[in-house]
């Protein structure tokens, strides 16, 4: 016990340094979260206060109108979009991380004959893409998943960056001795993968799962392209549609008198409503973060000792 | 190798191959099959009855004509300069700051606070670009922005029309990019740091190494492979740019073009009324090609110094 | 395991595939396009999906199946989504029958020139044209300007919506605010170009002096460009190439260096300096949160009867419009709202038959516009009174999607609404280059460069933010460097060729008023 304390002391920073670091990092953290607070404040200000004073951190007048309007805009639609977003995020992340981990593990093994080939297979798409039109073509006419649930999941399943990060981690952070020992004991590769490598890779798996989940949650572009049915529209896409409509109106002012635009203008949600939507769209994923954190820092200790 | 070992290695190879299948299928459909579309860059696209391939084959070949628009304009110098410089600065700032941040967070004594800071630093990543642009506007709007509010309140300066001041925007964009990416990138480095075997530190302590020396000689070297990887991957996109950062956030303000015009925004602005199909394909092909050359070159250089960190 | 199990798996897969393929071989002995086997028309439109769409679709199908052996499926894409998604669909040749196209959305000219739409007329063999064979009703109903304007090389590529065809900029005054600040609207001089705007300046001054909260005297945004009464534009008002109204020599010139344009730019700069134009007008999206009730003057394309109570934009305030100049009929105006048939449509003849019905049959037109009579609306004194169900579940249909003159009037509309439209169209003068379409292919690179220059300088110049004496020369210099002269030369060349061809055929447009067809 004494030895451990001495070790801890030798690998930790002093109390003064700790305070300084805390202050600096706290400032950075506050800068990062400031916009969110700001957005929340706008969502609870009154419309007229906004028109008069612009965006202020402490609004001059409060109002719940923003959230009411969101509910009116479609409480049912909102719930549906939530469900879709959650389903897409969970399913997409689970499948994506799993198949990427398999691939990354295979190419991380020095004794895999074709590892160079498959590494190239993964890297080339990152550098070179055929462009947008053929991908759209294949997704809608060959794979035929437009307006289908899988349209939201498949395009984002694999990222070469995550693949290579996993590969790097497997290569450098899993002791080769462990793998050798298992091989000698007669375990096959699947067993090694599931029973030895994955548990050891928890930090990176958890990290990438978090990043992927965030990616799926915030993805409005894929639904924008492939989904027109409102029953399949996830949350961020819903928000984006509203904002895109507003910008369309702003940029086509000459049409504002035509009955076409008039109806659109009349139903346009206000700033406060939009911000209310942003708040509602961000909270779930923000709450997901602590869930992942548990796994990421399961090894996080003073100075790097595993507890 | 004995026959038993030979058999074991064949089985291993088989299993490895099976492991690669799902992702391979993904790449075939989502990446490799669409690659034929790069040929669109060399065609003057015209529709023909009979679907896309009928149109494709019947459209005439026009060689490199679709590429000309990127180079024959005076604006080419500006947009190439902007794109490349911004990307380089992005890579440097984000890497240095996230590594520093990751190391510092790891050192904090109060682990609970460290968790909270990390959560807070992630928020920028949750926000979509349009929302971020509203936020930036709330700072820099001429009548109602906070920056001008402070300037007039403290009597430093009259209200500045920020969206007409190109010289301010490189700073704004670099900071916004840093702000958005720092939580995300530092967590990757943090995960790696966490995975460093404590034996290294034990040995260092026994040799009497100070805290700073521990960081310099153990932590950073262990981060080298992943830092190199991230940098090389970022370099592959040297001619690409985030549309949100350079078009949406500056609100597409015309006066800012000298410092916010990139290859992607030039193409978007120019092609809105043209509706050309070959020209965007040509631009994309060119960007990818340059990125490819760059990656191969850098990877070769890296291999000479540290073959473990090289990508392939 | 290995070999035996793999072979078994492959065999099973093959069997399944064959079985599925066999089943998919549909069995319907009636040919497609008959009432027993109706053809399904896939129609893509812009707007929000009405909740009661299935009911309306069923009523429509019940009506159409016995008549043309077809059913219609309507797909709505939101305003922000339509441009991108429809473009993708067209380019990747995804199957669809009909889509909405206009000069401002899914640009008709671009796609038509690329051959994305099915040709509706055949200049070499007029009898064989799709429109001629199945769309006689459309031909008879359409204002001839609509029939001829959008033709590219003699071929029409989409069915225009019969509506207002004249182009007139209008200043829309907030009459509630005018009363509040004591401005006499009779002092406004309409249809006089710059003089009209000058007669509005006292109103702007009064608003500024009254210091009303959040009031914007003259509301314009970054995409604002001038349309001058004496100029028509080859591509659009923000791209180089203008011809004088009433021109006989068809000279193409750079509009920004013309004295008329300079006069406007200097006047707008004056208005900006007086504080009537929002300080940040040149920044896009900065004005998107102005509430219309706070604006003194808005600018928009004119539509007859836009001041009446049935216009939903003026809620909480009244408006009165004044024209900026005498109406003009330009090529672009005839492309204000059209329905195109896909080049890959399976049965373009059935599609055309449907469009014919849509544009001639009041039952179908009003069904799609207002919903089912008795459920979504009732006719009171021949005017449409929407039921609560109609307001909540079927109120998103856009008028630009079919002949508007067939529609029942709304409550609050004047009884002579369509007559006013007719008079508005009749009062217009034809542009000298009406019917001319510019082929952009020879100067695509220059257009790209010029577009970027326009986006850089345009907003600050045209909103009056910048001093034209300083910035205009910079703008022109940059435009020239980007290739403006080459564009102008190419435009002149094509215009000359077009004029010669029109003269030979005797179809040169005349600038004075042309008699309309008997219907509209």
Describe the structure.
The complex is a heterotrimer of chains A (307), B (312) and C (520). Helices cover 73% and strands 0% of the residues of chain A. Chain A has 14 helices and no strands. Chain A is flat and about 80 Å long. By secondary structure, chain B is an all-alpha fold. Chain B has one domain (85-305): MetI-like fold (Orthogonal Bundle). Chain B has helices at 3-32, 52-58, 75-107, 111-126, 129-140, 146-153, 169-194, 198-206, 211-235, 243-248, 257-260, 263-271, 278-305. The longest helix of chain B has 33 residues, at 75-107. With 520 residues, chain C is α/β, with parallel strands linked by helices. Chain C has a domain at 39-162 and 334-368: Periplasmic binding protein-like II (D-Maltodextrin-Binding Protein, domain 2), CATH 3.40.190. The termini of chain C are far apart. Residues 513-520 of chain C have low confidence and may be disordered. The chains are: A mainly alpha (307), B mainly alpha (312), C alpha/beta (520).
Overall pLDDT score of chain B: 86
Structural class of the secondary structure composition of chain B? mainly alpha
End-to-end gap of chain B: 27 Å
- Order of adjacent strands in the largest pleated sheet of chain C: 2-1-3-12-4
Largest sheet of chain C: 5 strands, mixed
> Quaternary status of these chains?
heterotrimer
Approximate shape of chain B: flat
Mean pLDDT of chain C: 87
- H-E order of chain B: HHHHHHHHHHHHH
Strand content of chain B: under 5%
CATH class of chain B reads Mainly Alpha
* Distance from first to last alpha carbon of chain C: 79 Å
- Largest inter-chain contact set: A-B, 115 and 106 residues
| CATH C-level name of the domain at 39-162 and 334-368 in chain C | Alpha Beta
Tally of helical runs of chain C = 17
> In total, how many beta strands of chain B?
0
Radius of gyration based on Cα positions of chain B: 25 Å
Q: What is the 3D shape of chain C?
A: globular
Described by strand count, sense and barrel closure, the largest sheet of chain B is: none
At a glance:
The complex is a heterotrimer of chains A (307), B (312) and C (520). Chain A is mainly alpha-helical and 307 residues long.
How would the blueprint of this fold be written?
The complex is a heterotrimer of chains A (307), B (312) and C (520).
Chain A: H1 2-11, H2 15-43, H3 47-53, H4 65-108, H5 115-127, H6 132-142, H7 160-173, H8 176-184, H9 189-200, H10 202-218, H11 221-226, H12 235-251, H13 259-266, H14 271-296
Helix pairs in contact in A: 2-14, 4-7, 4-10, 4-14, 5-7, 8-9, 10-14, 12-14
Chain B: H1 3-32, H2 52-58, H3 75-107, H4 111-126, H5 129-140, H6 146-153, H7 169-194, H8 198-206, H9 211-235, H10 243-248, H11 257-260, H12 263-271, H13 278-305
Helix pairs in contact in B: 3-7, 3-9, 4-7, 9-13
Chain C: H1 2-24, E1 39-46, H2 53-68, E2 70-77, H3 79-91, E3 98-101, H4 108-114, H5 130-134, H6 136-141, H7 144-148, E4 158-160, E5 169-174, H8 175-181, H9 194-210, E6 216-219, E7 231-233, E8 242-244, H10 259-273, E9 295-301, E10 319-323, E11 328-329, E12 338-341, H11 348-360, H12 362-370, E13 377-380, E14 383-386, H13 388-393, E15 409-410, H14 417-426, E16 429-430, H15 444-462, H16 468-482, H17 484-505
Parallel strand pairs in C: 1-2, 1-3, 6-9, 11-16, 14-15
Antiparallel strand pairs in C: 3-12, 4-12, 5-9, 5-10, 7-8, 13-14
Helix pairs in contact in C: 15-16
